[in-house]
Design a protein that fits this description.
- By secondary structure, the protein is of the alpha/beta class.
- It has two domains: 6-113, no CATH class; 210-418, Vaccinia Virus protein VP39 (Rossmann fold, 3-Layer(aba) Sandwich), CATH 3.40.50.150.
- It is built from 20 helices and twelve strands.
- The chain has helices at residues 6-19, 26-36, 44-57, 59-66, 71-82, 87-93, 99-107, 115-118, 123-133, 135-144, 162-171, 198-201, 210-219, 236-244, 258-271, 287-290, 323-341, 363-372, 382-386, 403-406; strands at 151-155, 176-178, 185-188, 205-207, 226-229, 250-255, 276-280, 296-302, 344-354, 377-380, 399-401, 411-418.
- The strands form two sheets. Strands 5, 6, 7, 8, 9, 10, 11 and 12 form an eight-stranded mixed beta sheet that branches. The protein has a four-stranded antiparallel beta sheet with strand order 2-3-1-4.
Length: 419
């Protein structure tokens, strides 16, 4: 924060005020703000983004300790309490009109904070994770969700290997290490101009959280398989699956959003994969899906969900959702699971996954499905099937990844084998 100055602080406040309206996803709103303020340079934008996201992550905490919900005061409180700038140094970095607010911050007595306030988490969400995980684990999880997510890459094995990519990055003095669990993952300290780097442009690497890479590994797609990525989105897992299949067999990428599938096209072109067929569908009951009934070896459902396991990357999601949203989401998840299950051939696998940390969207959905399809599917121990040291099943058949335990985004997955 050494480069902070009065003009930059005012721009940060303006961006924060806009994004705290929560009318759209924070990343889209911040991108729009930068487009409207093109005078902000490449060194200024990351600083603004860091402060804005810190305010969103720690919103309730900052409101309580500053006694205000106003963006300027919350930004000052974030710079002081989160980034560690002293109040005296702040006085030299912001315009004089904020000096009274800085003085007030120094005089404001620190209140007693509830866990919800300390971890800046909505009451309804804290109650759910407290009941589900227990106070101690819930506290560690909530604390982990306040941190900034790591910057993970996946090596495209069609073109390269992790060893070769790490060596290339090291030769360029780019700090990078192998991810602890994913065999194709690399964790870099910071964005090194990825979009313009040769390794990215030539398809050797893609941005993908380690947890997402692990889910792709869980599918166990092999050469010659017929595989469906049922909710493909922009195709991160599709690309990982295609590489696992050594570009052989057939891989279908279904999604109801033309915009998301369009984002997959340039990634697919870079990847060198030729075994992927994208398909826009109208709904989970689209007739084009039904023609594959009973023919598929592996079906992956990365189901639409609350996304609460990704709060380190998308902290605004906790403020833009309500408990009632989860109820409607679980009904949708079960409908998708029911439809996708019809594609699986005998002894084939149906893999259900979410980036949620809530039982409502995870175990509860699978339990409902198993009751409705009694005798048609059996649960396979997902963590045992994955076989990665350090990831266990915690005495359940499910795979659960958590940022406080595994360092990646929060994910859940279940493997169902067609009988």
């Amino acid at each position: 924060m050494e480069s902070l100055n009065p003009k930059l602080f005012d721009a940060t406040v303006a961006a924060t005020e806009e994004i705290l309206k929560f009318t759209s996803p924070a990343d889209a709103m911040l991108s729009n703000y930068f487009k409207k303020n093109r005078g902000l340079g490449s060194h200024e934008r990351p600083l603004i983004a860091d402060v804005v996201y810190s305010v969103i992550r720690n919103k309730t905490y900052l409101e309580k300790i500053s006694g205000s919900e106003e963006a300027p005061i919350m930004c000052l409180a974030a710079l002081n309490k989160i980034f560690g700038l002293s109040l005296n140094s702040l006085k030299a970095k912001v315009s004089k009109r904020w000096l009274k607010n800085i003085q007030r911050l120094g005089e404001e007595p620190l209140p007693e904070l509830s866990p919800q306030d300390r971890y800046s988490i909505p009451d309804w969400l804290w109650q759910k994770i407290d009941a589900q995980y227990g106070f101690e684990t819930a506290s560690k999880l909530a604390q982990a969700l306040l941190s900034k997510a790591p910057f993970d890459l996946r090596v495209n094995q069609v073109y390269s290997s992790r060893k070769r990519v790490l060596a290339q990055l090291e030769s360029e003095d780019i700090k990078a290490i192998a991810t602890p669990f994913s065999p194709t993952g690399i964790r870099v300290k910071e964005n090194f101009g990825l979009q313009k780097h040769r390794l990215f442009l030539e398809g050797h690497i893609e941005v993908q959280d380690e947890g997402s890479q692990i889910l792709a590994q869980l599918v166990g797609a092999k050469r010659g398989h017929m595989v469906v990525d049922f909710c493909a989105g922009a195709g991160g897992k599709t690309l990982a699956l295609g590489a696992m299949m050594s570009n052989q067999g057939r891989l279908y990428a279904f999604d109801i959003s033309a915009k998301r599938l369009e984002r997959l096209k340039p990634r697919l072109k870079r990847s060198g994969l030729s075994n992927v067929q994208t398909q826009l569908i109208g709904s989970e009951k689209d007739p084009r899906i039904q023609r594959l009934a009973g023919k598929i070896d592996r079906v992956l459902i990365d189901a639409p969900c609350s996304g609460l396991g990704t709060l380190r990357r998308n902290p605004d999601m906790k403020w833009r959702q309500a408990e009632t949203d989860i109820v409607s989401m679980t009904d949708k998840q079960l409908r998708i699971l029911n439809s996708a299950s019809k594609l699986v051939k005998k002894d084939g696998l149906l893999i259900y996954a979410t980036c949620s940390i809530l039982r409502d969207e995870n175990e509860s959905v699978i339990e409902r499905f198993m009751i409705e399809h009694q005798g048609k599917f059996e649960l396979i121990d997902a963590a045992k099937s994955l076989g990665i040291e350090g990831i266990d099943s915690s005495n359940t058949p499910y795979l659960k990844l958590l940022p406080n335990t595994h360092g990646c985004d929060g994910f859940f997955s279940a493997i169902l084998k067609a009988i």
